[in-house]
Design a protein that fits this description.
mainly alpha, 14 helices
């Protein structure tokens, strides 16, 4: 394989691996929930771990001395990234499952690529989907529906829960839009550190309204500590840095299309870690998702 071909394929491979890891977080998060941690506590702890590790890394980098953005507008931009890609996204997604089914939440959150393409395309003409990209995206979305519904084609509408799930999708679409501007003036390490900082800072009002924190003894249990380290170091620190890198090379729309893979990896890791069964619907949906993404990317480059 030529060096140029490898360079063009690498961002796609990295994007796939990131979403695969994010898909696996469902199983690890479920294990933590079974051990008594709340969704807000899990999000906060994983971001604390990621922020502390990244802060230590930044201090060790001789070329990294910047603590604040170049202007207050850019600092507000970083704050927006921390809220939309951090606290508000995770809170709305987790809260939605208290009012609607997991199926509804999964389906609605997986509309994120469509919302992202519409929002980014509205502001950036160069990022608008071609016909083939739209067709591939819709095929992938159909695959998501097959995987999530798993043969049970019954949806229970819940305005509040479904609205919260839609808000989570919109949060990630806004995050992708803001990231385009942020990438023009700052590197991925600075941006990711700001995302973690403002994601944690914006959680303070939540804990003022909903107090509660797990005991140190509970946190130091090997099962809890190991899962938190994976979520904090791998799924947060490494994946957020690499996702910023991927958006620069693929664009926000193409990168976000890989979110369609998330349900497939969620089911796979649920089977591997939680012993949940894999059905023929999973296999059919997985094929539709991969074929849809392949067609969207391949035809999109030719148009």
């Amino acid at each position: 394989m030529a060096k140029g071909e490898l360079k063009s394929i690498l961002p796609h491979v990295v994007a796939f691996l990131i979403v695969a890891i994010w898909g696996s977080t469902f199983a690890f998060t479920k294990l933590l929930l079974l051990n008594g941690l709340s969704p807000a506590q899990i999000f906060t702890l994983r971001f604390i771990i990621a922020y502390v590790l990244l802060l230590l890394f930044s201090l060790c980098r001789k070329s990294s001395h910047r603590w604040f953005s170049r202007s207050w507008r850019d600092e507000l931009l970083m704050c927006g990234l921390g809220v939309t890609g951090g606290s508000l996204y995770f809170l709305t997604e987790n809260a939605s499952m208290n009012y609607t089914t997991t199926t509804n939440t999964s389906l609605i959150v997986c509309t994120t690529p469509l919302l992202t393409s519409a929002l980014v395309g509205f502001f950036y003409k160069s990022e608008r989907l071609s016909r083939w990209q739209t067709f591939g995206s819709l095929m992938a979305m159909a695959g998501v529906a097959v995987v999530v519904l798993n043969g049970h084609f019954v949806l229970h509408l819940s305005p509040l829960g479904d609205g919260l799930a839609l808000a989570a999708s919109l949060c990630w679409a806004l995050y992708s839009l803001l990231m385009i501007r942020a990438n023009k003036g700052y590197d991925e390490f600075f941006i990711t550190r700001k995302v973690f900082f403002y994601g944690l800072l914006s959680m303070i009002p939540y804990f003022m309204c909903v107090p509660g924190w797990p005991s140190l003894r509970n946190l130091l249990q090997p099962a809890i500590l190991g899962n938190l380290f994976f979520l904090g170091f791998v799924a947060s620190l490494l994946c957020f840095i690499l996702w910023t890198w991927v958006i620069v090379r693929l664009g926000a729309v193409v990168a976000t299309n890989y979110v369609y893979v998330s349900p497939v990896t969620s089911v796979f890791f649920a089977w591997w870690i939680l012993s949940e069964p894999i059905t023929p619907f999973f296999l059919l949906g997985g094929v539709l998702i991969l074929l849809g993404m392949y067609l969207a990317d391949r035809k999109g480059h030719r148009s």
